[in-house]
Design goal:
Length: 207
């Protein structure tokens, strides 16, 4: 009785934690292969470096997909994003939308077909290229690692939609017409100008 009380209750298994031996082994392997800086950045991005899985495949974005069938339910599959060099704003270089649609279903347990096999089996010639979240296309997210300029001039030009009148949109808005015009059955009333860019023939294909 006394021995049972001293022993205490059994430890509750927490699948969100990983043993020191597991992630330290992975950290040392990355350190030897890529250097201490890249190993530190990898740990900073992933928070936990799992070394208990088998590599299932990779995608065009450089993501690596792993699986460990002995892990608890819901924690058997995961993705590791490419390690980002530099020391500043590493979180701005990685986004969950980097996971391609081919791997999304496998990663979230929708099916058991890895992404490379799904693309080969269900791929269509009209499939559009995968694009990451448009937030990642802003200059402050595409600035090279190690650059910390305030205006982000080193980044790529913004590649997302900017409506007319938005701050930073230098494209001319054109002349503004009436917002609303009552319908004239006779058709004698002259139509108001469209509220659009200056050259409607190129934007709306209207003569």
């Amino acid at each position: 009785m006394v021995a049972a009380l001293k022993k205490g209750p059994p430890k509750i298994y927490d699948p969100t934690t990983h043993t020191m031996r597991g992630w330290m082994k992975r950290f040392n392997e990355t350190w030897k292969a890529q250097g201490f800086g890249m190993a530190y950045n990898k740990l900073r991005i992933e928070n936990a470096m799992r070394g208990d899985g088998a590599l299932v495949g990779t995608d065009a974005n450089g993501n690596k997909y792993f699986e460990n069938l002995k892990a608890p339910t819901g924690h058997t599959r995961w993705v590791e994003y490419p390690t980002v060099p530099g020391v500043w704003a590493l979180e701005d270089k990685v986004d969950a939308s980097m996971v391609s649609p081919d791997w999304h279903g496998w990663l979230h347990y929708m099916h058991d077909i890895p992404g490379n096999q799904a693309a080969a089996k269900f791929g269509q010639p009209f499939k559009m290229p995968h694009r990451v979240n448009q937030t990642m296309l802003r200059p402050q997210y595409t600035t090279p690692a190690g650059i910390t300029s305030k205006d982000h001039e080193e980044g790529a030009p913004a590649a997302f939609h900017m409506p007319p009148g938005q701050h930073g949109n230098e494209k001319p808005r054109g002349r503004l017409g009436a917002k609303y015009q009552a319908w004239d059955p006779s058709g004698s009333t002259e139509a108001s100008e469209l509220r659009n860019y200056a050259d409607n023939s190129n934007t709306l294909h209207i003569p």
